[in-house]
TrEMBL record:
Keywords: Membrane, Peroxisome, Peroxisome biogenesis. The keyword Membrane applies. It comes from the Eukaryota. GO terms for biological process: peroxisome fission. PANTHER family: MICROBODY (PEROXISOME) PROLIFERATION PROTEIN PEROXIN 11B (EUROFUNG) (PTHR12652:SF23), PEROXISOMAL BIOGENESIS FACTOR 11 (PTHR12652). Its main location: membrane. GO terms for cellular component: peroxisomal membrane. This is PEX11 domain protein. It is found in: Peroxisome membrane.
Length: 265
């Protein structure tokens, strides 16, 4: 008999998971951005007597900044996770290259290898973004007078912008990798079963989230001209989609914990 997970149990797991907390803070940050740059939302959905309608732009700006800085400690060492994943993909590519010599390679293997290289690029570029973000942790998050690592504020800003460029590159690789996977899966659609279709849905969800996220670093470096309200809307959409991944993982972990507890009796 399969273990059932209640919404409360799943939320408890989600709310105590580092990734889950980070997604919740990102959701609040995106909503704050929308309220800041689209003030008519407050008066449209809330009564004029509501305390939220009296929030000033300076309050919302401060709140958005605080939410952004609260998220960074949760990502401080996440660049190690990205680099580790990139190394695993690269090792897999090297092993497959040694396993098959030039004469025995199947020409139809190229979509798999292309997807792996794009996956490597996505994880490596994202790792660089997270590393640069961690390098300015003292200046951006702690922001203590007289305490700093870098010589000037301009250096810090430059590192932040460079990090956004790496993030954009990682997202582009992720989008292209998702497209290649969907094209490859489409060629084998007749052989795929229900589980494969479910997996395809997750690929599409991740692809849409990455496309939405492109607007965030793209607007910072000037490659994607978007108004702040649109950026907030894209951030909200991608947060919901990526948050669903964490939510589903937390559900699976609760099921696994219940199963382990039952078998250990």
């Amino acid at each position: 008999m399969a273990d059932r997970v209640s919404t409360f149990e799943q939320f408890v797991k989600f709310g105590t998971d580092a990734y889950g907390i980070e997604r919740l803070l990102r959701l609040l940050q995106s909503l704050t951005t929308l309220l800041l740059f689209t003030p008519t939302l407050l008066t449209s959905f809330l009564p004029l007597s509501s305390p939220l309608t009296t929030l000033t732009p300076s309050t919302l700006t401060h709140l958005r900044t605080r939410l952004a800085t609260l998220r960074q400690p949760l990502r401080f060492f996440r660049f190690l996770d990205s680099f580790s994943a990139a190394w695993s993909v690269l090792s897999s590519l090297q092993q497959s290259s040694h396993h098959h010599d030039h004469h025995h390679k199947n020409k139809r293997d190229w979509p798999d290898r292309l997807q792996q290289w794009l996956d490597f690029g996505s994880k490596a570029f994202t790792g660089m973004y997270l590393l640069l973000e961690s390098l300015v942790f003292i200046e951006v998050v702690l922001d203590a007078p007289g305490l700093g690592v870098w010589a000037s504020r301009e250096v810090v800003v430059g590192l932040v912008v460079d990090g956004q460029r790496f993030w954009f590159a990682g997202l582009v690789c992720g989008v292209l990798g998702g497209v290649v996977k969907l094209m490859r899966d489409g060629l084998e659609e007749g052989k795929r079963e229900k589980g494969g279709k479910r997996g395809k849905g997750k690929v599409v969800r991740r692809l849409v989230a990455d496309v939405m996220d492109l607007g965030l670093p793209g607007s910072v470096v000037g490659w994607v001209p978007l108004v702040p309200g649109t950026v907030g809307l894209l951030m909200l959409g991608s947060t919901v989609l990526t948050g669903l991944e964490v939510w589903e993982r937390c559900g699976r972990e609760v099921v696994a914990a219940k199963k382990a507890a039952r078998e250990g009796r």
